[in-house]
Each structure stands twice: as C-alpha cells, then as structure tokens.
C-alpha cells in the first residue's frame, strides 16, 4: 500500500500525544541540592585521557563533575549501581521520560527492575544552549556510542579506540577481568557535551561542533553508590567525524565532591521500583 490516500494531509495533521506525561514523576529536591552544592569538599579526581576511558566511583549523596579542561571535547558516560552491576543506566527510558537531551533538574534512570534515579543533573554550564535552528542540543541520550562494529561495517578495518572499546578496556582493568567478560557490561551512554539532533528531511541522527569550552562542566548528584566510566571520544568535538585519529582530542576531568555534614538532611536514596514483578503470571 504505497498510494497516497486522499486524506493524507489530514492524517499528518493529527496532533501528537506525549507518551509519558511526567506530572506524577518523582521530582528531585533542587532547592536542597542547590544549597548543598554551595559548600563542597573535593574528595578525588580522575583525568580521562584523549581517545581513552577511565572509571571512577561516587558514594551516594556525593556530587561528581565532568569538566572540559583543555579544548572542546565530548565524552561518553556509563553508570552502574556500584553494588549491583546488573543495574545500569537506561538511556532509552531516560529519553522517553525527559526527551532527547537532558539538563539541570533531570535524571539518569536505571534499568529494570530497579528503574529509579541513578543521578540527578545538579548544574549544567551549557544550559544556555537550548535547542538550535537545526534541532540540535547538548547532552544527548539518543546516540548509542561510537563502536568498532559499526565502524567495521561502514568503513572496514579494526579501530580500537571507539568509545565502546575504550569503556570496555576501562571496565576490564577496573574489574580485573578479560575484555570479553567486561564488554557485556558496557551500555548505551549519556553523550556529555555532544551536540546532536535529527535531520528534518530524513530523520537521521546528526552531530555538529560541540559548544563546550574549557571550564564548562556538567555536574551530577549521586542518588546511589555509583561506578562510572567515561570515554573521551575519538571524535573530539564531533564537528566532522568520530572514530578518528585525525580529530583534535582533549582530556576530560572527573571530580568527586562531598557535601558538608547536615547539608542533605531529609534526603534518602530512592528505593527500587514498586512494581511487584508478577507480570500477570
């Protein structure tokens, strides 16, 4: 059935309906987080080298910050429940709840059956960017991560510094296991600082030069004990291509901060999802 129907325009004109209205979604106490982040004590840092990845840990109730330190650079972020690696960031559900890109006050949600907030964005110095004339914005949850399998499919060869491989090596080193054992833990990412969208004519995923500048950062509040892995993408600012040895690439700094005693009085880690898991059986 490829013939255009007589009522085609009327069908196209049907108004969309939001799939997941979020009025009842549990909201973070941003006033509490804003107050707590005014007086933080740095407890650790990791410098992620260009075209590589590194892991880091963040206790529940602490903050962590990803900063551009030398030049325009995007990063691919994975998060796990540090006490149960089966619970990990769920980019698809985060996208369904918050949209294609996330910013201050929005959350990174975990996989089933936990399905609860893992981290809340507490500050975003690129919050000013909004959505540009091309439909592009920053910090996307639509791109999966550059990977050597797609690279091989489209270009041939074996490129080992795609973000997927970077994250795999970092997790293998952290856990002390072979890369083939670590690889299944790597999952779809938050593309930190990456500027992306979908073309209006073909609906294709696009990227453009990131607006990030040295000193810009994305800051998170850890809602649970977290293990994170961040890759400094081989595409640099992703203005031309990713999975490339030609792009200018720079390190990314991950810093962890503790709030002052009493700054989070009243906050408790989110419980696992309340669904009873019987599935009608």
TrEMBL record:
<dbReference type="InterPro" id="IPR018959">
    <property type="entry name" value="DUF1989"/>
</dbReference>
<feature type="domain" description="DUF1989">
    <location>
        <begin position="48"/>
        <end position="227"/>
    </location>
</feature>
<protein>
    <recommendedName>
        <fullName>DUF1989 domain-containing protein</fullName>
    </recommendedName>
</protein>
<dbReference type="Pfam" id="PF09347">
    <property type="entry name" value="DUF1989"/>
</dbReference>
């Amino acid at each position: 059935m490829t013939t255009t129907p007589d009522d085609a325009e009327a069908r196209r004109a049907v108004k969309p309906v939001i799939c997941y209205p979020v009025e009842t979604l549990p909201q973070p106490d941003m006033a509490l987080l804003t107050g707590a982040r005014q007086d933080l004590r740095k407890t650790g840092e990791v410098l992620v080298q260009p075209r590589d990845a590194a892991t880091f840990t963040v206790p529940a109730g602490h903050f962590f910050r990803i900063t551009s330190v030398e030049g325009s650079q995007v990063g691919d972020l994975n998060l796990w429940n540090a006490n149960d690696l089966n619970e990990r960031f769920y980019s698809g559900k985060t996208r369904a709840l918050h949209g294609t890109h996330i910013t201050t006050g929005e959350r990174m949600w975990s996989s089933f059956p936990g399905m609860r907030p893992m981290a809340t964005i507490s500050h975003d110095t690129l919050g000013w960017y909004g959505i540009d004339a091309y439909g592009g914005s920053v910090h996307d949850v639509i791109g999966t991560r550059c990977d050597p399998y797609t690279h091989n499919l489209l270009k041939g060869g074996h490129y080992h510094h795609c973000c997927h491989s970077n994250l795999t090596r970092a997790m293998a080193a952290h856990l002390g296991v072979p890369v083939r054992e670590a690889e299944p833990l790597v999952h779809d990412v938050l593309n930190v600082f990456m500027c992306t969208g979908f073309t209006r004519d073909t609906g294709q995923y696009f990227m453009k030069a990131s607006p990030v500048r040295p000193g810009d950062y994305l800051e998170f509040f850890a809602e649970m004990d977290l293990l994170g892995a961040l890759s400094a993408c081989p595409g640099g600012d992703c203005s031309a291509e990713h999975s490339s040895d030609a792009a200018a690439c720079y390190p990314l700094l991950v810093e962890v901060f503790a709030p002052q005693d009493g700054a989070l009085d009243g906050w408790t880690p989110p419980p696992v999802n309340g669904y009873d898991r019987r599935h009608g059986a």
